[in-house]
Records
---
Amino acid sequence: MDKVRRVDAHQHFWRYEAEGYGWIGDGMDALKRDFLPDELRLELDGQGVYGTVAVQARGTEAETEFLLGLAATYPWILAVVGWIDLRADDLEARLEARPPSAVLKGYRHQVQDEPSPSAFLEDGRFNRGVELLQRRGKVYEVLIRSHDLPAAAAFCGRHDLGPLVLDHLGKPDVRNESAAEWRERIRPLAALEHVSCKLSGLITEAPWRAWGERDLLPYLDAALECFGPRRLLFGSDWPVCLLSGSYGQVRGLAEAATASLSEAEREAVFGGNASRVYGITL
């Protein structure tokens, strides 16, 4: 793994305020504080990770500016996935007004938090916004839960002008759905060659701090079977992962899942695919 620099393709930073991060609810006290680059750098150094993709954690344009500001100070933040109102009537003008940034590679909306995520994915204004992003060469990341996979597959099928990335394996319901059942439900989405998938977020879908590799490896095996090693990206989901385990445990789970792959395939999962999808030079 020394030949290709490792990239954590999914992590977050924030200065915590309860009003701005309403999704951090009861039982999530470990996340109710600031999480900033100097703390993460210690984890990355310990795990041999070169750089990261910082992803938005709240739906404000100020969040995008915050992440871009951090990236300007810490060059190992290799890419930013920000937020903008994709349903805005003046979206194109707002995108035009943004200062050029080589680090701002894409956008995400927290669709999973909408009252009806499947209906939101059908919204005409939202779809026009995603099409506009793709025409401008930006990545869009899909954040949904497992029960919205059919709607996500239809949505991704409509948007093939550029790469799409599925966050957190589509959040399989590991407490109630077997890996075999989930594999069959993810197949239609995985059949779309322009869709990649992040090996991230799985340990917080399992009972917190009560999971073992044997519980979760079947879901990662299914992801490898469906997407293949050229469309999977390692991500830690730090600091959210801390609810259920350490950064090292997340990395170890991904290492175990990819142990049977060739060196080139492992290099792709742990860095090469992120470099290609986000246009990062390593």
---
Amino acid sequence: MNNEFDDRKSPLSDRPGFVLIIAGVSGAGKTTVGRALAERLGWRFIEGDDYHPAANVAKMQRGEPLNDADREPWLLRLRDEIKACLARGERAILTCSALKERYRALLRPDPERVHFVFLTGSYETLHKRLTQRHNHFMGPDLLASQLETLDLPGDGLIVDIDQPVDAIVDAIMVYLGL
């Protein structure tokens, strides 16, 4: 795990509103971890995939990777939702792949109140998870393109997914100082 913060200092701002983005490639468990964390904290949960335009979903269902032009409207919608959460003083968990640093910069309108947790794992683990899930538009054939696009951050928390969900949630709670 990589933690940019001293163990004694929480990234939670004293100001109202905070959004924690659970990021990583498809199959990393963003939704599972995000829901579990939001439930434990009593925070709002926002599924980033729900904000994809229909054209993006159709493209991924055809097995075609998204490019920057495809991702931009989606990221802008997520940024608007993040800004609204902060303006309302809400605390929320949002899931989003956030594969590139420039995507993360767009999603971080307030660096003090928007932080990232990256879920990482081996290709084999991720691929196995993708082949086992059903009713999702993102198939295992797009994993390689996501891994090629991935630019891991130098800040925030990076957690290996090869452990139980509760252990991952516990690590995030420690990161948050809770």
